Amino acid sequence: MSRIGRAALATLEDRIDAIESRAKISELRSAYARFASSGNAYGVASLFTEDCVFDGPMGAGKGRGIINGNKALGDFLAPQIGKIGAVLPLISNEIIKVDGDTAKGWCLMQTPMAPGFGALVCEYFDECVRIDGKWFFAKRTMFLFQPVYEERPANYAQMEPTGR
To answer: Which InterPro entries does this chain map to (predicted)?
Structure first.
């Protein structure tokens, strides 16, 4: 090892891993959008761990709820995903904080829909985990902005990540 010591190399390896992990988590979000746009509810669910938690709106007028497990998530999404017509989820404003084989993140999603269905705008707080080298959603919390604005919880400002 010439000018780079072992400690610096380990730090460099960690930094490269974090950069690659952020790219893979961004791709995970893009795969979510692609499966949703193609109406593949079980494809969406396959991006989650078996014991995942989805916390979000349960449908028009049904309020918020929690879905446990990727099988239950696929079953929940299957009748929903085709009901709203063609969708094109656009992911933006990503923040991803990697800590080894876990990560937390936040992003916005805007989804133009088929004529007559309006648009969906929401934000996601994500907790991800790397299993056998592949990233999955372990928990995904969704808040709507449009078509219905959901009141944020009292601890909203403290929810991770802040990007700092």
So the answer is: NTF2-like_dom_sf, SnoaL-like
The sign one gets for the Cα dihedral 141, 31, 131, 22 is: negative
Neighbours of 137 (CB within 10 A): 25
Under a CB-based contact definition with an 8 Å cutoff, are residues 153 and 129 in contact?
A: no
At 56-69, the pLDDT tens digits run 988 767 888 999 99
Rounded to the nearest 5 percent, the helix, strand and coil shares of the chain are 30, 40, 30
Reduced to 3 states, what is the DSSP secondary structure of residue 85? coil
CATH number for the region 6-158 comes to 3.10.450.50
Write the pLDDT tens digit of every residue in 125-144.
Answer: 999 999 999 999 999 999 98
When pLDDT is cut at 50, 70 and 90, the band that residue 1 belongs to is very low
DSSP 3-state of 29: helix
pTM of the predicted model as reported, rounded to 2 decimal places: 0.85
The tokens for 104 are 């937390």
Amino acid in position 135: W
